[in-house]
Amino acid sequence: MRALVTGAGGQVGREVAGLLSRSPHHEVLAADRGLLDIADREKVLQICGEWRPEVIINAAAFTAVDDCEERRDQAWAVNSLGPRNLAEGARLAGAHLVHISTDYVFDGTSSRPYSEWDPPNPLSVYGSSKWAGEREVLGLLPGAAVVRTSWVCSPHGHNMLKTVLRLAASSPGPLRMVDDQRGCPTFAGDLAQMLVRLAVSRMPGTFHVTNQGQTTWYGFARDVMAAAGYDPARVEPISTAELQPPRPAPRPANSALDNAALRLLGIPLLADYHDALGRALRQLLAAT
Fold first, then answer.
1. Which CATH number does the domain housing residue 192 bear?
2. Does residue 245 have a cis peptide bond before it, meaning omega lies within 30 degrees of 0?
3. Is pLDDT of 287 > 90?
4. What is the pTM (predicted TM-score) of this model?
5. Residues 185-191: what's their mean pLDDT?
């Protein structure tokens, strides 16, 4: 299978490209932003036309949630127009497109986890631009797959796992973490396996894919501290309103995702996030 992986320099793209490259059955073009800016329609169509991928996995996005509030044009170009360009390129090449979206398409007012059939109502520029990207993909390419995920962590890049470890090691003082935002931590290596499965089987539709288990940022930080051998009591809960400085982009209070489509299709769900956390920490330790 010839696969184009966009955003290959990021957490998820790196894992997807690595997973595909380790198989003798796949030929992979791992495109980071330097090779392919998905907002560049001509470049997207050129690569799709010349390389003729059978599958495109789009892990490229402008994910800096607060920066999106100030750099709106860039957010809409990458998160909305970029997926449109890839859908057009996929149609040109006859490729199956798997597009990654986010839990931030929801407003967080639900008292239960969101299923794939709950109506989005994003609060931020980031969430709105990602929701528009979903509609671009499925509008141009009805057989495509949209995969919503949340709270992505890995041993690479910038994420909450590495932030907690850095803060724990750099200061003996308390770590103050928000306790009124709930979601599902998801580890990029586990997510990549499901993305590849959906790509190879050419599954269409919208899917929620997360590691299992819900928590808050406060709870997750305590889990990280305990798993890494630090005292979890050092983590103190605060509210979103207490964050200093205040964050420009509003966050959903509850963005936990119910992986209903996978469950109803009988597809095994990702492991509990505590298991994935342990694996990620072992990988980090092995690299040091």
1. 3.40.50.720
2. yes
3. no
4. 0.96
5. 97
Give the residue numbers spanning the domain of 191.
2-158+185-213+252-273
Does 13 map to a domain? yes
Tally the C-alpha atoms within 13 A of residue 18's C-alpha that lie toward its C-beta. Answer: 13
CA distance to 3, 127, 159, 262, per residue, from 206 (Å): 20, 16, 25, 10
* DSSP string computed for 239-269: -GGG-SSPPSS---SB--B--HHHHHHTPPP
List Cβ neighbours of 186 (8 Å cut-off, separation of 6 or more).
Answer: 149, 150, 151, 152, 153, 209, 210, 211, 270, 273, 276
Q: Are 262 and 198 contacting, i.e. CB atoms less than 8 angstroms apart?
A: no
Counting beta carbons within 10 angstroms of the beta carbon of residue 211, is it exposed (0 to 12), middle (13 to 18) or buried (19 or more)? buried
Number of domains in the chain: 1
Which entry of 104, 126, 230, 273 is annotated as an active-site residue?
Answer: 126
Q: Is residue 164 part of a domain?
A: no
Q: What is the mean pLDDT of residues 151-165?
A: 93
Which tokens hold the place of 56? Answer: 């495109």
Q: Is residue 222 part of a domain?
A: no
Q: For residue 273, indicate whether it is catalytic.
A: no
Does 225 map to a domain?
Answer: no
